[in-house]
Amino acid sequence: MFAVSPLLIAQAPFESTMGLVQKISYYHMPAAWMFLVAAIVCGVASIRFLFTGSIRHDRVAWGAAELVVLFGALALVTGPLWARKAWGVWWVWDVRLTSSLMGWMVAVAYLLVRKYGGPGSDKLAAGLSLFGMANVPFIYISVNYWRTIHPKTTVIPKLPLEMGVPFWFCTATFLLLFVLLLRMRVRLEEQRARLDALYLALD
Amino acid sequence: MSAFFRVAWLVLRKDLTVEMRSFEIVSTSLFFAVSCVLFFAVAFVQEGRALDGASAGILWIAIAFAGTLALGRTFERERQAETLRALLLAPADRPAIYVGKLAGIVALLAVTEVVLVPLIAYLFQAGFLARPLWMLAVLVSGTLGYCAVGTLFAAMLVRARSRDVLLPILLYPITIPVIIAGVRATAALIEPQPDLEIVRFWLSLLVAYDVVFVTLALWSFEPLMTD
Q1: Which residue in B177, B181, B223 is closest to A51 by CB distance?
Q2: Quick check: B65 pLDDT over 90?
Q3: Which pick of A110, A114, B49, B123 has the fewest CB atoms within 10 Å?
Q4: Average pLDDT of A21-43?
Q5: Three-state SS string across chain B, please?
Q6: Contact residues, chain B to chain A, C-beta under 8 Å
Q7: Chain A interface, mutation test: which of B170, B198, B205, B215, most A Cβ atoms within 10 Å?
Q8: B76-117 pLDDT per residue, tens
Q9: Which of B162, B177, B227 lies closest to A139 in CB terms?
Q10: Which residues of A are less than 8 Å from B224 in CB distance?
Q11: Is the model's pLDDT at B183 over the cut of 70?
């Protein structure tokens, strides 16, 4: 799987970047979905870390938070590019846009805490992601009270075959990329911990 | 249950006694909030007329900024004297300590708001005091929601490096819904003919936020505060 997914990534752009602005959604929607998946993984792993104290969950949460920032940035950049053409503006304070931006900001805050928080920052960051998850419905309700113009996800099952195939292909590619990056990140962290342990054993 | 509230009350009384003797937090955060408001007044009041709809936002920004300052200071004080460790070592419920701290910070911010609300009403010709009971409800629920998250994060940050920088970074993204709801409710309330339906909607959102976040904080305070 590690070997195949870069090939899939290399193939995907041939399907998706053929001029029309709408084609950006082949990348925008999978990125936004992975952003959500990563956020859920991060939140669940944080809660499990908080209540079991297992360092493994903490590593998963950390890796997932980095992917939230990565896929969130992709979704937040491709979205306005499309919106500029479709709506005529780069940005509106719509439910999805606002809650995505806030979720992304929470993930950035998470990484800042991990980097600059010093000792004890793992619990701090886990608490942050717990509260960040609880925050989502409130942002949703509060902004939904204003009007929403973002397209609904119900258009996806109605896609014609020639559009549906590249779309689901891109989604699968992004999902594989997500799993690959997360596993690599967790392994990196495990190896770093092992290296530290060996280094300490040398002294 | 009564032991729980007794501990919370003792923590609250201790905080208020320390504050009564020094006036450190109230005076600094009040001065800071007033200078913020004066900056906004210089920027947004032109030829004696305030910008429409600016006052609600300015009130909540001033509360949020003053709150950040107060939250940082209350726990900095505990850290300097190593008294937070003593508090956590005491044979008391951790959530009770949280409730006492939260009540103390809400009380301190309430003092700030007592000065801020008339000041902004005066500078921006905003009718904050036209419906005092509604305004009070919005202020209390908004401040409680903001401080519920703030107290937890400030307590967790006590041991972190660069805590002064991290507190706003953590606090502001999480409290966005409180600020949105507070600003919208206040803005709806100071209309000449306020639509109480809208105010009621935002107020109920604020109360729901308070309930969820206080519960969540009580639930997670224990695992988050263990060394």
Answers
A1: B223
A2: yes
A3: B49
A4: 78
A5: CHHHHHHHHHHHHHHHHHHHHHCHHHHHHHHHHHHHHHHHHHHHEECCEECCCHHHHHHHHHHHHHHHHHHHHHHHHHHHCCHHHHHHHCCCCHHHHHHHHHHHHHHHHHHHHHHHHHHHHHHCCCCCCCCHHHHHHHHHHHHHHHHHHHHHHHHHHCCCCCHHHHHHHHHHHHCHHHHHHHHHHHHHHCCCCCCHHHHHHHHHHHHHHHHHHHHHHHHHHHHHHCC
A6: 149, 152-153, 156-157, 159-162, 165-166, 169-170, 173-174, 176-177, 180-181, 184, 201, 205, 208-209, 212-213, 216, 220, 223-224, 227
A7: B170
A8: 888 887 887 888 888 888 889 899 999 999 999 999 999 999
A9: B177
A10: 50, 123-124, 126-127
A11: yes
